[in-house]
Design brief:
Length: about 260
């Protein structure tokens, strides 16, 4: 395992890519509405990238055809945007965005509902956000990745939800996916010890049922779905380990 340590100057550059990723993530989320197609949201990102002369990190990544990932309901991650996929009332939609700028990538996702969520969908989203928050609060120098995973796992399990294990968070920087692996479960005191300058994507993928933590990939070769087709939610931040904790790089620009 080779974990890239970024200098302060490199983190500054990465912060730019991450801020832009966050901005586009939120633009995408604000366009989630019944009747809109996921292809239209992808088009928006393509336009934005053209206007600001940046690259969508996922476009053509391992042959991926979209600029972003848009995953609905039982789709956990890697949903391919399509002009034929119409968002329906009550859909849970995750918009996962990465922007490549100045040599670095951001990677960030949030899940929103098209219209009013059912009470159980609202709880799933809220718990998944708390999972991400718990992971971020645990992360810092000298902390094991097992501690981060455990913090996430604890929140999901106490709520009675499933945790996707087939797919996990990761290092992110010059490439979208790099070492280390960042699972959403773990044993405290195990695995890699985090150090200042490491940059990781923490991304809990939480499912309504325990059976749903098993996943399948659809015949399009990309879309990851819960095996029992239960609802899932996904939030993701890119985080830099600092001397005294961590910095979330993919917060909105106006966030303190
Ligand atoms: N955003 C995904 C992640 O969080 C990666 C998408 S790569 C793609 O790891 F090729 F599938 F788009
Ligand atoms: Co992502
Ligand atoms: Co990621």
């Amino acid at each position: 395992m080779k974990v890239d340590i970024k200098s302060k100057a490199e983190i500054d550059r990465m912060r730019e890519a991450c801020r832009m990723s966050a901005e586009i993530r939120d633009i995408c989320a604000s366009h989630v509405s019944p009747g809109v197609t996921t292809g239209e949201i992808d088009d928006l990102v393509a336009e934005y990238c053209g206007r600001y002369k940046v690259k969508a990190s996922f476009y053509r990544y391992n042959g991926y055809p979209g600029h972003i990932c848009v995953s609905i309901n039982d789709e956990v991650i890697h949903g391919i945007p399509s002009r034929h996929r119409v968002i329906m009332p009550g859909d849970l939609v995750s918009t996962d965005v990465g922007i490549f700028k100045g040599g670095f990538n951001g990677d960030t996702s949030r899940t929103v509902c098209a219209g009013k969520p059912s009470p159980e969908a609202a709880r799933l989203m809220e718990v998944t956000r708390r999972c991400l928050k718990a992971g971020i609060e645990a992360a810092g120098p000298g902390v094991h990745l097992g501690d981060v995973g455990y913090a996430i796992q604890k929140v999901a399990e106490e709520a009675g939800f499933g945790i996707v294990r087939d797919w996990i968070g990761h290092g992110v920087g010059r490439t979208v996916h790099e070492d280390p692996q960042v699972p959403n479960y773990g044993i405290p005191g195990t695995k890699l010890v985090l150090r200042p300058g490491m940059t990781i994507a923490i991304e809990p993928m939480i499912t309504m049922t325990k059976a749903g933590e098993r996943t399948d990939v659809l015949s399009d070769g990309w879309t990851v779905v819960t095996r029992d087709r239960c609802l899932s939610a996904h939030y993701e931040h890119t985080v830099a380990i600092t001397d005294d904790g961590c910095e979330v790089l993919t917060l909105p620009a106006d966030y303190p």
